[in-house]
Design brief:
244 residues, 6-stranded mixed sheet, 4-stranded antiparallel sheet, 9 helices, 10 strands, 27% strand, globular
Length: 244
């Protein structure tokens, strides 16, 4: 049985004046896949993601995300994906409960659905003691785990995670990745950027952007074999040092 493609990107390009931020990239992502989208700062990752989630219009090229075209139905894409970033995920001046209720409303859930989801989330993450605390009072690790769960409230086909574990300790990072594995096993596609190369090893496949182009795309194992190295950090280094 053929795997369902949930992201199909064809010759996607974004220019700002004379500067080409994303240069003619093409790839596809399957349902339930953990897809790592890597590259140094300035490589074009964030610009590409903004196009895929429907908040930036491409200069040229095309993409379908969660069954919708980024050029013609960007609003439909927003309703069918989850998104979480390191910089913004929850409102600090709301309690955990209020955040869940607020984002559930934004995602179009009914009051009954929000209450059911909140009870499930509190039980699964063990939030009973902190559900009525302001998010600002919580450790970063807790914030990130709650943010990820909130991004899944409306059962999106795809969740985009933009450096979700930045600044958290290794144990919390591992716990976060357990949540990612669980969601992927249930059929949710995970599209994740990270600067931690050990996390790249956890992905089913990895693409690596250099100067706006995808210069490598394969499983971590095959990329290490291709570049004759023992770690994903070494793969990145080889690509960064190769002549453009």
């Amino acid at each position: 049985m053929q795997e369902e493609t949930v992201i199909q990107v064809e010759n996607l390009t974004k220019m700002f004046g004379e500067f080409t931020a994303v240069n003619n990239i093409s790839f596809e992502v399957k349902k339930g896949e953990i897809f790592g989208f890597l590259g140094a700062n300035g490589a074009g990752k964030t610009t590409a993601i903004k196009m895929l989630i429907g908040i930036s219009t491409p200069t040229s090229g095309n993409a379908d995300v969660a069954g919708f075209n980024i050029n013609t139905h960007p609003e439909s894409i927003k309703k069918n994906i989850g998104y979480m970033s390191q910089k913004f995920a929850l409102y600090d001046d709301l309690t955990v409960k209020e955040n869940i209720t607020f984002f559930g409303g934004i995602y179009g859930l009914t009051r009954k659905q929000i209450n059911e989801k909140r009870c499930l989330l509190v039980e699964e993450l063990g939030l009973q003691e902190i559900v009525n605390q302001l998010v600002s009072s919580l450790p970063l690790g807790w914030k990130q785990k709650i943010s990820f769960s909130v991004a899944l409230l409306h059962n999106p086909k795809i969740v985009f995670l933009d450096e979700p574990t930045g600044g958290v300790d290794p144990i919390t990072r591992r716990q976060f990745w357990e949540l990612i594995y669980k969601a992927a096993n249930q059929g949710t596609t995970i599209f994740v950027t990270t600067h931690y190369m050990d996390e790249a090893e956890y992905c089913d496949r990895v693409s690596i952007m250099v100067n706006g182009k995808i210069e490598a795309l394969n499983t971590p194992k095959k990329l290490k074999e291709q570049f004759k190295v023992i770690s994903m950090s070494d793969v990145i280094l080889k690509l960064a040092r190769s002549p453009s």
